[in-house]
Specification:
The complex is a heterodimer of chains A (176) and B (194). Chain A is an alpha+beta fold and 176 residues long. Chain A is 20% helix and 32% strand. Chain A has helices at residues 56-59, 63-74, 92-105, 170-175, and strands at residues 13-19, 22-28, 34-37, 43-46, 115-118, 124-129, 134-141, 144-151, 154-162. In chain A, the strands form three sheets. In chain A, strands 5-6-7-8-9 form a five-stranded antiparallel β-sheet. Chain A is globular, with a radius of gyration of 16 Å. The two termini of chain A are 29 Å apart. Chain B has helices at residues 4-9, 16-22, 86-99, 115-119, 153-171, 187-193; strands at residues 48-55, 59-60, 63-64, 77-81, 106-114, 120-121, 124-125, 128-131, 140-144, 175-177. In chain B, strands 8-9-4-1-5-10 form a six-stranded antiparallel β-sheet. A two-stranded antiparallel ribbon of chain B has the order 2-3. A two-stranded antiparallel sheet of chain B has the order 6-7. Chain B is globular, with a radius of gyration of 16 Å. The N and C termini of chain B lie far apart (42 Å). Classes of the chains: A alpha+beta (176), B alpha+beta (194). At the A-B interface, strand 5, strand 6, strand 7, strand 8 and strand 9 of A face helix 3 and helix 5 of B.
Chain lengths: 176, 194
């Protein structure tokens, strides 16, 4: 079972990730002990600050998730100017929300799962540009999202949309 | 050289895009004046511009990732002009690769496109392209989005993201990998980073 081992944590959230016949559930918290179900659906308790295999439940069978998780982790602790120019560093709080989004987006089908990147204002985001979907989503501040999506020529825009780290905003969930 | 307001906009605080857009009443007015004594002159519509592309995810299905184009509305998107020497590319990549955070960005190639394509869209001006030659890079230029104002913060954000999509579409898919661009003269930067 792969372990994504660093000091990362993310907001309490839950996700059902359907991959073939398997459905995994993960409940992870940085501030209180939580129970999670492992791949055999056996309960495991994670304590405060516990870094024990916290994400493997969602990630083990999903290369997109592993890759996205890695990309987010590489942006933790960056200084300003990390892009070779004047980009601001993303805040830890904003990256925590990116982790949460990654878990939730992992449940979306291939072609609807965007890639992670950080813009020059230090805003983490996800983008896609393929036959099925154009998406430019940013975490404007921790807990607040905006996006422009184009699907089959129809434009969808969301701004100042609250994201609690637990579930995708319904407008976003519908279009992805 | 000309237009003291445009030249003044090169200095000062605040985002370059705001300063240069505010220096002229006419949209992209400062394009008509050379902004650098070091540059060969204003950028012509038929010039090819080169944008350095990084990995991972600098490109999405061959097109520039819209998230990387946020700079259009802040500090400007740096490009090198058609007649830039290979030495100018080398200097640029020396600077970038020495400051790119490890594991976050690496050089993969260059996307090239005609200046007119990003200057003009179906609905009027798309972007402004200014000659901003630098001491070691006289063929440096900056692409800047025109001033965007909306009735609300939300309306402005929608206009910005819509504008970015139009620029992504205008630039298109003319990517050349490091191994092929200028006969591979920059390929070692890609290899070093990996």
């Amino acid at each position: 079972m792969p372990i994504i081992a660093d000091s990362t944590y993310f907001l309490a959230h839950s996700a059902s990730l359907a991959r073939g016949e398997a459905v995994y559930h993960a409940y992870v918290s940085a501030d209180r002990p939580v129970w999670v179900l492992d791949q055999q659906k056996q309960p495991v308790q994670l304590g405060i600050g516990d870094i024990h295999q916290r994400t493997v439940f969602a990630a083990s069978a999903d290369p997109w998730f592993l890759s996205t998780w890695d990309k987010i982790s590489h942006h933790v602790g960056l200084p300003d100017g990390w892009d070779g120019a004047s980009a601001r560093a993303p805040t830890r709080e904003a990256l925590d929300h990116a982790y949460s989004l990654a878990v939730l987006l992992a449940a979306k089908p291939e072609g609807r799962r965007p890639v992670f990147a950080v813009d020059s204002e230090g805003r983490p985001g996800f983008a896609a540009n393929n036959r099925e979907l154009y998406l430019h989503l940013t975490i404007d501040t921790p807990g607040i999202l905006s996006w422009l999506a184009v699907i089959n020529g129809i434009e969808y825009f969301g701004d100042d949309i609250a994201f609690d780290g637990v579930s995708l905003p319904s407008e976003l969930d519908r279009i992805l | 050289m000309g237009c003291s307001q445009c030249l003044k906009a090169l200095q000062g605080s605040g985002p370059f895009a705001d300063r240069i857009n505010g220096a002229s009443v006419e949209i992209c007015g400062c394009e008509q004046h050379s902004l650098s004594e070091l540059s060969p002159g204003v950028v012509q519509d038929d010039e090819t511009l080169h944008f350095i592309v990084s990995d991972p995810d600098g490109l999405l299905d061959g097109r520039i990732n819209p998230i990387l184009l946020r700079q259009l509305h802040i500090g400007g998107l740096s490009v090198l002009r058609e007649n830039a020497t290979t030495e100018e590319f080398v200097r640029t990549l020396d600077e970038l690769t020495s400051t790119w955070a490890k594991n976050v960005r690496s050089f993969i190639g260059v996307t090239s496109f005609q200046c007119a394509g990003v200057r003009f869209g179906n609905e009027g001006r798309l972007c402004c392209v200014f000659d901003t030659g630098l001491p070691s890079k006289p063929h440096h230029a900056d692409i800047v989005g025109p001033m965007i104002t909306g009735e609300s913060k939300s309306a402005a954000e929608r206009l910005r993201k819509t504008h970015v999509k139009r620029v992504v579409d205008a630039i298109g898919q003319s990517f050349e990998a490091a191994a092929a661009f200028r006969a591979g003269a920059l390929a070692h930067f890609a290899e070093v980073q990996r």
